[in-house]
Amino acid sequence: MKILLKKPLLLLIVVVVFALRVSAQAPREKTLFNAGWKFHKGDAPGADQPAFNDQDWRKLDLPHDWSIEGPFDQQWASGTAFLPTGIGWYRKIFDLKSDMQGKEVFIYFDGVNNNSEVWINGHSLGKRPNGFVSFEYELTQYLNKSGKNTIAVKVDHSQFADSRWYTGSGINRNVYLVATNAVHIDTWGLSFNTSQVSEQSAQAKVSVAVTNLSATMANLDIKAVLKDPKGAVVSAGQHAAKIVAGKHLSSDILLAVNNPKLWSTEDPELYQLQVSLYQGDKELDRMTENVGIRTAVFDKDKGFTLNGKSLKLKGVCVHDDAGTFGTAVPEAVWETRLNSLKAAGVTSLRLSHNPHADYLYDLCDKMGILVMDEAFDEWELGKNKWIAGWNQGKPGQDGYHEYFKDWAERDLADMIKRDRNHPSIILWSIGNEIDYPNDPYTDPILNTGRNPQIYGKGYTPDHPTADNLTRIAKKLVAVVKQNDTSRPVTAALAGVVMSNEVGYPDVLDAVGYNYQEFRYADDHAKYPNRIIYGSENGMAGSAWDAVIDNNYIAGQYLWTGIDYMGEAKKWPARSSPDGLLDLGGFKKPEFYYRQSLWSDKPMVYIGASEVPAANAKENHNAEPNWNWPDGKLLRISCFTNCEEAELFLNGKSLGKKARAEMVNHILTWDVTYAPGDLSVKGYNKGVVVSEDKLVTAGEAYAIKLTHDKMSQSFFFEQVTVNVVDKEGNIVYNANNEITVNLQGNAVLLGLESGDHNSHEDYRSNKRKVFHGKLIAYIQRKQGALGIDYSSPGLKSASEQTAALNQR
Q: What are φ and ψ of residue 746, in 5° steps?
């Protein structure tokens, strides 16, 4: 029988066969190892052994954070969101894939919080106290090559108040299984550094660290290829090397690039670096990374320049949780958040106060967001961890400092090596507020001068001396320099007066000031060689004025870009409300204020509040709400970057105001409330370029859905659920409980409203809206899907989607 194949089908078969052949011959295999784990909350003696019976354990896929599952309870710590911690166990049974047979096999954890210990087939591989660093173990010698293998992980997060913010518990980041040949490039074994960068040319040095686990010497050709953003090879080089059995070596290859496409915040051009090891004609290993070519320079007088162009850092600090997900956050959620922050004009992130998930750095590379990568929040001594509420009651002292002496240098080195090829990173920070006065360090200088951040009053002689700051900082800076010299080393200082006294800032390349803009001028004059920037700043317009009015200040990092779990006030509060975005990623009034300062795109925003007292602080509390008691006098605040703004109430102009009339970068009108609509128009050169409007909403009537169009994965949906009146206006004061029911092959990952006082179960399919809305996160799989959103007394909403084909 003759079988006829149409040309497109024949071509598809050829492509698939070729792809399979290439995959089978790939010298390095790295696969996600997240699926098919079992979990038990609580201790489980013997669970490290393969024969242990885990039949009743819960099945799940990683990443996973068990703390966010609750319940919220006052018995836990406000600092960590009044959520439980404890001990948890994970196990996974797997067969070694055929293409990993005969290779060196490693398991790589992007992060486990915290105090993890890992076993393979009953053999302990090691412990890692730090909950934020990435690490790997070799499995090879303990594997059953043709049978079942059991990975077991114990996570001991028994110290529930060991952080000043929420960290989560469990294997809360990705896990990978890696297989290499005996001669291979080390994990984090590539380093890409550029020098002599201009628009005409660039010089790059590629450093390659290689290990030989074989029994014989290997004669290698180490080859490096650099491809431009379109995939064309722009430079190549190679180096011959001999590596003795059981040894390591490091080799450098120089690459020259003509007319490089420079990475920048506007055009984040990424090159692909591919490094291969050859023994004769056989390729032993191949590693590929995205890299960028750019210059990033901090100057004591000129601030920060990127590719020779002056750029003020418009930064925000961020922690690594996302409400309903805890710290096990899908990449698509962070992508949406970053897009929102960029819309506010944000150009930089300070990753507070620890290394973050690997994919976040990749997103920053692709999206053109500059990064300060930070290692520690405490060193050898513990800080206050608030239990009853922020600055309330007696604090705890548990934390990473217990492991600092033995682990800090390794943890810091691993952070640098993991992240050093990301063009987005411009600063390495060795610590946040380690010098917080009297928490724990002290000095007699605290009895003088102005110390805005201080625990207690003045010098506290029974506390450790601040001289220790300089001693430890020197060691940490040396660790950074051993692993990367292309970026300055910094730290965020809280006790600048005290640190100046003991020479701590002199050890740093750039010095971050937390909430101390008033020191900029005096310290710039007193320490003329010091590079100064705002490493943590409040939202006041005056803090930004201190940046734009002084060329020598590189920028600022607001506290904070996004609301975060923990560091809460007294119960019932369980999270911090200090962000531009709330826990659900919704834009707050503060977002629009910052956008008016930082964005070049014409914008105008109005919000209402009660008229503040004459001596009140700068008021950004401009709610997008036009439902108030009749006749009430309100303060209308307008945030805009337009030349003029005009306010209208029910179509009648209440006056046009120019930027020259702004106070703290805000235009205001005092208006007597009347129902209807309040609107504003922003003008440039007399032409309307932006508008905003508030409408009096009627009674809650229906549920209305909107979808995030920026989700990275076709199978991951972020759906905003709005409570609206009959006209479709969001009812800002609504608090209806929404129930989400799914029919089909999909999972409701969570619901988030952004309400800081909510103690609702994050695992539930029900949640109350806050300010009239919440967000639903849905993971779709194959097959048709139906979703119903309902609430008593409201017209429900539903979605019906066709079957998805697996991609």
A: -155, 165
Q: How far is CA 634 from the centre of its chain?
A: 38
- Look at residues 528, 473, 531, 480 and name the one whose alpha carbon lies nearest to residue 499: 473
> Which of 231, 227, 213 is closest to 277 using CA atoms?
213
Q: What is the DSSP string of 80-134?
A: GTT---EEEEEEEEEEPPGGGTTSEEEEEES--BSSEEEEETTEEEEEE--SS--
Please give the span between the terminal C-alpha atoms of the chain, in angstroms, as a whole number. 33
* pLDDT 10s digits, 353-390: 999 999 999 999 999 999 999 999 999 999 999 999 98
Distance CA 348, CA 312 (A): 10
- Per DSSP, 414 falls in state H
Catalytic pick from 104, 331, 433, 644? 433
Query: pLDDT per residue over 52-98, tens digit each?
Result: 999 999 999 999 999 999 999 999 999 999 999 999 999 999 999 88
CB 290 within 8 Å of CB 282: no
Is 536 known to be catalytic? yes
The structure's pTM equals: 0.94
Q: Length of the chain in residues, anyone?
A: 807
Question: How many CB atoms neighbour CB 560 within 10 A?
Answer: 23
Catalytic residue chosen out of the listed positions 536, 590, 623, 717? 536
Query: What are the C-alpha distances in Å from 280 to residues 186, 221, 284, 508, 800?
Result: 20, 8, 10, 46, 57
Q: How far apart are CA 458 and CA 442, in angstroms?
A: 8
Return the HEC string of 13-56.
Answer: HHHHHHHHHHHHHCCCEEEECCCCEEEEECCCCCCCCCCCCCCC
